[in-house]
Amino acid sequence: MILAGDIGGTKTLLGFFDPDSGVHSPQSLHSYPSRDYPSLESILTRFMGEVDPRLSEGSLESAAFGVAGPVISGRCQTTNLPWIIETSSLAKTLGLSPKSVALANDLVSIAWGITIAPPESLETINAGVGNPQGTRVVVAPGTGLGEAIIGMHNGTPLPIPTEGGHVDWAPTSPEEIPLLLWLWDKFGHASPERLISGPGLAHLYHFHAQSPPPGGTLLPPDLPEEKVPETVSLEAERGNPLALAVMKHFWRLIAAEAGNMALKSLATGGVILAGGIPEKILPFLDRTVFMDTFTAKGRYRQLLTTIPVTLSSDPDVGIKGAAEIARRLVRSDHSSERSPS
């Protein structure tokens, strides 16, 4: 049995998988509110106490966790949680060898999940002409903005983490220059994550609320900030012109950033949108506007029209990717055992 985890700023998802029957169907899956716990180890202790009777002694072979933040030498200072996570401590909590525990950037886990995703879990935005051996990129707005590159080496996927959500953001039209100035004034730095994320959707609302369109209705002033993104989506469903303007702008921002990532990595294999938010706001997607924005890169417009763009509709793609990492750890260990010394 292998253990996988998807560690997010909002929730922590943990599950057991059978490496012999694939990683698409977890044997058990539990969700915990991340901010209610002082550490990942405390969640693991509770999880193991709740499900351990289902496991025979010593049946856990490996574990892997995707976590939001840069992972360096088996250690991560989480971006959206006050946690420091280390593989050595996780191994001790689980009673495993440190070699049997992996810690990966959450987008690396999602990227691994994408590599094993069934075609029916991917919604097509642009069919394009994909190169099966070409580089792919993942753009995943959620609590933050995660981005990863999926390279290929001898036919094997090679997910590469990035912190692309924290680079400089630039307007794509004169109309967005006031937004840049607003972000500078509010944060001192304008990054894609300040706009293309859950909190970013709230920021975008506050910017547009300064000059609402005709008929636009403002949200209640005492609405908690964490409720703004969901409420904007609900208001857009009701036809509120202000909320609709925010959602349309949000999709254009995603498209522009996805096009940037496609060019920076020459993603001839395709661009995949993931992270939870795109799937939830899919009803507000105008595919024509999306592709017009995605391809608006001057002399490289024609190249970008050939790149496939899909949207992952599987909410568990991250934990399945972590399970794939854990499965590969088991396979690597077994290969080492068979190798002559």
Automatic annotation (TrEMBL):
* Keyword Cytoplasm tagged: no
In the record, biological process GO terms are: glycolytic process
Q: Does the keyword Secreted apply?
A: no
Q: Where in this chain does the entry annotate a coiled-coil region?
A: none
Q: By its UniProt entry, which Gene3D superfamilies does this protein fall under?
A: 3.30.420.40, 3.40.367.20
Q: What's an example of a GO molecular-function annotation for this chain? A: ATP binding
Its keywords, alphabetically, are: Kinase, Transferase
Note the Pfam families from the entry.
Answer: Glucokinase
Family statement drawn from the similarity comment of this UniProt entry: Belongs to the bacterial glucokinase family.
Q: What is this protein called?
A: Glucokinase
State the organism named in the record.
Answer: Leptospirillum ferrodiazotrophum
